[in-house]
Amino acid sequence: MATAQVNGITIGYDDNGPGAGDVSPRQGDARRTLVLLHGHPFDRSMWTPQRAAFTATHRVITPDLRGYGASTVVPGTTGFATFAEDIAALMDHLGVREFALGGVSMGGQLVMECYRLFPERVTGLLLADTSPAAETADGKVFRNALADRLLADGMKGYADEVRDKMVAPYNAKVSAYVHRLMLSAPPEGAAAALRGRAERPDYRDLLARADVPSLVVVGRDDTFTPVSDAEAMHAVLPDSTLHIVESAAHLPNLERPDDFNSALRTWLARLDG
User: Fold this and answer.
1) Residue 100, pLDDT score
2) What is the pTM of this model?
3) Which residues contact 121 (CB under 8 A, 6 or more apart)?
4) Phi-psi region of 17 (alpha: psi -120 to 50; beta: other; left: phi over 0)
5) What pairs with residue 244 in β-bridges?
6) How far apart are CA 63 and CA 82, in angstroms?
């Protein structure tokens, strides 16, 4: 793991593969740079199967979002624009101008926010088990109440409740790993993200104007963001592929990494030209 001081905080990240650590990459290297954003309430380690699969051919950068993992915890509210600005600043620090960008769940929504703020830097979109819609009124109440609960009670009760939605219960080994990740999340960082997530904009019009190749992935048994949500995103995006991962719920990159990576490999090959 490495760290960078950006936007007044410390960002923890992994940078692996060809060109890793090079702050002045050669012209053309942007086509082979992949940045992956984790979901809530996880950290960069959730992308371990993808780092292992792709660092022979691509520079893979996986940051800990503000408030998670080895990055600085900032209490209060972390808006999506702040998360995106952290990613842009980290890429500046690493000398990476353009990159393919992917994320799962909240990380997928942050991919959309990054594309809203600096589309000229993003060469392709990977949107996994996520939704572009703004939060509903009831959803805002729920997320803010959950933030209060995490601050008061910690992560365990929440982690226990959502475990079988994050990972299908028939994937027992992965479920245990994901449960440990949730327990290790800082409650203050998770709560700040929840409050920011409650205020996210609607990205559907943005996706309709997207002019980069996109990959939409979803677990067949995802109940947080079901297949119908993925199909709707696929229908809106002008240039997209939809891939449904069987025998997986909300985190198919961990539950069925070979299947997930196969779809990712095809998408990257197209970006690489």
Assistant:
1) 98
2) 0.97
3) 88, 91, 97, 98, 99, 114
4) left
5) 218
6) 14
